[in-house]
Design goal:
By secondary structure, the chain is mostly helical. It has five helices and no strands.
Length: about 140
């Protein structure tokens, strides 16, 4: 059953690629900040209804968590704004490769040190090689 999670993550990646292009187009018409706001407003409304009908946790629990755990929404809004801003300028693929590079580099550092309460997964030579290859792919995507 554990195999389902990478498949779900893959589907999430597909959704992000579509979201990038859709939000980029919205940003051209409505403006970058406005498009990010519209995107989050629609997402918030959708999650509101999903929570009402399918939620099993407690939204009130937000008051009892460490306050730094509440910045996820701000980081998500920042991400959507950056996508709206960059996709129309450099395209979906280059934008996503750049995002993925940032995620893998910081994700590897978070894992290596077990930051933010995460599991410690040391960086090794293979991971460093993979990060370097990711930068090679970013270079090749941007080479004219």
């Amino acid at each position: 059953m554990k195999f389902i999670y990478p498949i779900l993550a893959l589907i999430g990646g597909v959704a992000i690629a579509f979201q990038a292009q859709i939000n980029g187009g919205l940003g051209k018409k409505a403006g970058s900040i406005e498009a990010a706001f519209i995107s989050f407003l629609i997402g918030t409304a959708a999650l509101f209804f999903v929570t009402i009908f399918f939620g099993k946790g407690s939204v009130i629990a937000a008051g009892s968590v460490p306050k730094w755990q509440l910045i996820g929404g701000l980081l998500g809004a920042f991400y959507v704004f950056i996508m709206v801003l960059t996709v129309p300028k450099i395209g979906v693929a280059t934008t996503l490769i750049s995002v993925i590079a940032g995620q893998i580099i910081i994700g590897s550092i978070i894992d290596h040190f077990g930051l933010l309460g995460g599991v410690r997964v040391p960086i090794d030579g293979k991971k460093i090689a993979a990060i370097l290859l990711l930068f090679v792919s970013l270079y090749l995507f941007n080479k004219k």
